[in-house]
C-alpha cells in the first residue's frame, strides 16, 4: 500500500516482485482515519479477490502487507501521525487495524524510505549495496538504504536530508532553520525564485522605461501565482533568460546537497526521482561538475547519479519489499 495525501494505491505482488494487479482510490483524509482505513482495507480485499480469481492463489498464501505512508510514521508502534498532509490523522494504528482484519504481518514505513527500497529491490539500485534516494517535488525527500535495510536514526527516526542547511543566510524554512536544501532547490523553491526574479525585473523595468525588454524573458504579464517549477523548467528549455538563471541557481544549490550526500556516505548510486526531476537534464551538468570538484577526499566522481526507474510505483514496490525481506 502506498498512502499519499490525496491518493492511496495498492498492489498485489508475488515474492519475485511481479506486480500482479493494482488499484487506487482517493483517500479523502479529512473524512477521518476510520473511513480511510476502511477504504484501504477494501482496496486490499478487492486485490485479493482479483488474484484469487485469475491465479493459483489462496488466501492462506498471503505473506503480509507493507504500507508506505507520507510524513511522520512510527514503524515500531505501527502508527501514522501525519495531520500535515492527512488532516485529522494523528496516531492512527494502521498496522493493528490491518493485522486484525487480515491476520498477517503488517509493516509500516515512511514514503521516502519505501521509494528508496523499491529502487533498491527492482529499480535503478538493483545489485548495489548502498543507495541514496532523493525525491524532488514540492519538497525534497531523501532516504538511505544499506544492504537492503533502511538506515534509521535514534528511536527509529527518519533522517531528513531535505532539511540539511545549504546556505545559512538563505530564506527561512517552515522547519525553523534558514537555507534548507528544500527551501533552495525544491519545486516550491524554484517557483518562489522565479516569482522573485519576475518582481525584481518588473521593478527594474519601471525604473528605466527606455530599457528594452530582454527577448525571451519570462512573460511580463504572467500572473505570479501561476508560476510553478514545471513552468519555469519549460521556459528554461525554450531558452528564456530569466528562467535559465533560476534553474541554474536551483541546480547549483541542488548539486551542493548531492555532494554532501556523496561526501558523507559515498553510496554506489544516488537515485533521483519526483516531478522536478522530469527536468533532470537541467540539473545533471551542475551535479557532475560539483562531484568532480569534491573528488579529493572521497571518490565522489565514481558515485553514479541515476534517474529512478520505477516512477510513481517505486513506493508500492518498496512497500512490497518490506514484506519480502522480513
Ligand atoms: Zn527546513
**Total helical elements:** 9
Mean pLDDT: 91
Widest beta sheet: strand line-up: 3-2-1-4-7
- Give the names of the bound compounds: zinc ion
Total DSSP E strands: 12
Major sheet characteristics: 5 strands, mixed
> Helicity level, as a percent range?
25-40%
Taking pLDDT < 50 over at least 5 consecutive residues as the criterion, the unreliable ranges are none
Order of helices and strands: EEEHEEEHEHEEEHHHHEHEH
Structural class: alpha/beta
**Straight-line N-to-C gap:** 16 Å
Shape: globular
Computed over alpha carbons, the radius of gyration is: 22 Å
Strand content: 15-25%
Kindly describe this structure.
- The chain is an alpha/beta fold and 326 residues long.
- Helices cover 38% and strands 17% of the residues.
- The chain contains nine helices and twelve strands.
- The chain has a five-stranded mixed β-sheet, with helices on both faces. It has a five-stranded mixed β-sheet with strand order 10-9-8-11-12, with helices on both faces. Strands 5-6 form a two-stranded antiparallel sheet.
- Helix 3 packs across helix 9 (314-324), helix 5 runs antiparallel to helix 7 and helix 7 packs across helix 8 (284-293).
- The longest helix is centred in the C-terminal third of the chain and has 25 residues, at 241-265.
- It is globular, with a radius of gyration of 22 Å.
- The chain starts with a strand and ends with a helix.
- It binds zinc ion (ZN).
- Residues 163, 173, 175, 177, 180, 182 line the site of zinc ion.
